[in-house]
Amino acid sequence: MKKPLLFCYFFLVILGARGQSCNCDITLSGLSTTTLNLVWASQISYSPGDTICIPAGNYAGIRFYDFEGTASNPVVFKNCGGQVTLNETAYSALEFKNSKYIHLTGTGHTSTTYGIKITGTGSWSMGVVLSALSTDIEVDHIEVASAGFAGFMAKTDPDCNNSATWRSNGFVMKNLNIHHNYFHDTGGEGIYMGFTIGYKLDGGRNCGGTSVYGHWLENVDVHHNIVENTGWDAIQVNLAHLNAKVRDNVIKNYGTEGRWGQAFALSLGGGAYEVYNNYMENGPLEKGWGMQIINGESGTKVFNNVFVKPKMHGVFLHHRHEFIDPNEGYYIANNTIIEPERAGVHYNTTVLHPIDPADLHRNQSEVPSYFVNNLVVDPGYDFEGGNTWKQNQESYFDFNERETRDSLLTNIYTNIMTRQIDTLGLTDVANNDYSPSSLSSAVVDVGSDLTSWGMTFDMNDASRPSATTFDIGAFEYQSSGTSLLARLPDTDDLYDVSLTEEIKTVFYPNPTYSTFRLENANYDEVTLQLVSMDGRIVFSDSYQIGEPFNVEEFTAGLYFLRLVTADKVETHRLIIR
After folding, report:
1. What is the pLDDT of residues 145-170, one digit of tens each?
2. 511: cis peptide before it, omega within 30°?
3. How many independent structural domains does the chain possess?
4. Which residue positions does the secretion signal occupy (predicted)?
5. 539 within domain boundaries
6. CB contact at 8 A, 337 and 377
């Protein structure tokens, strides 16, 4: 039975019966194309675990209030019947307020990877927002193609008029899973999570003489997103003090406004982080900085990342408070840093905001941090032969104090520091492929074994070590001594079109980050098999020619794609990024 609902902006939203093709429990209709749509949970009869669908079409922004599922049965919001396009002119385009246990997904139709697309927001507004004490939310397969400010924002700023927003009153924004989205062409950040200031004692908000701090974030996973063409930082996460990961993201052409201190590929602060498998490539104007971690806590790990021509340092680290654990600092390992404007890594341990006033300006040089297996190529700093305490190594791994450098010298090892990238034997430097090209590459089998640190894979999720020990940089050369084709099962039945006859099957794009399509006029349906490099068939099922095939669940790397028909088997090579 359909229920008409009249909202304060004087447009109708009708909630209908289950959609047959999308498994919807509730379908929104009557959404305005010109005025912000407001949807309150109190006006909808729903239960935890229900799916609320937005039918394909073009609308103004949508704001959801007070929806709540459970940890095991979140309320699902998705597109149905095709792509939903939101073009908002005054406000943020898609927002959840005071909501928890929510799953927002653009996987409602196979015709598009990003089933919900945002093409406009108000000035200084966001594409997608989680606010007003919202928590426990998953967001995936959303495209923000234009935003006045941030593409995605998740935080509730401390409000002097609402003490529930103060950290001291216990609210924690937790269990955020932000993945497989495409955020681009934003005026500000691509992804912005957490209150920017006020970690422990530095610059909280003053409310009538009371210092008020922003809430903590816990269990944050930001992964497999594509972030491009951002005016400010590509990804910023703050106050994630427990179990925060920023991984497997592709970042290009960021910080295009060139704002001082707000042009990082990654800007992280106030917590303990694992940062790995991110690819960060500066834009043609080279205004984007590398990454910074301010007040990263003991145990923070940065590994398997690629930085291409960052402005300033590749990695900038500054702990302005005392370390929680004076026996553990940071682990900076197996990163590839290409032509940073200054140093590959800069490390500053001077206390500026002490818990104990006696610690002001104390150098925490006794805290052990490690810099291992990194590849740093041709930094802009050039201390070689100078008359200061900084010499050749400080061009690559720089420190604000000599005492810190001296105390950590034994923790800086098996890195490759070079001005000559052409001597390394990398695959395709001209096209930013910095993986080793062969076993004879200078980066292969010369690193230190870091399995005890949990670093058992490379940027492509291939196992480390592949041979005798770790390679240097983000990529591990994979070699078994046999050709890739020889590792495939049932090789007698293979039909390799690259070796025999004219190729009639076309598939694109290749490489792919999300989906590809196959075209062949001779077939309507085939059996499609995806075979990993070790010969395992990781997927086998029927495939309709011309339909998009989603690869996001598979590990990045090289695969063989097999098309099985009644009369032959074709084999193609597919790269999943």
Report:
1. 999 999 999 999 999 999 999 999 99
2. yes
3. 1
4. 1-19
5. yes
6. yes
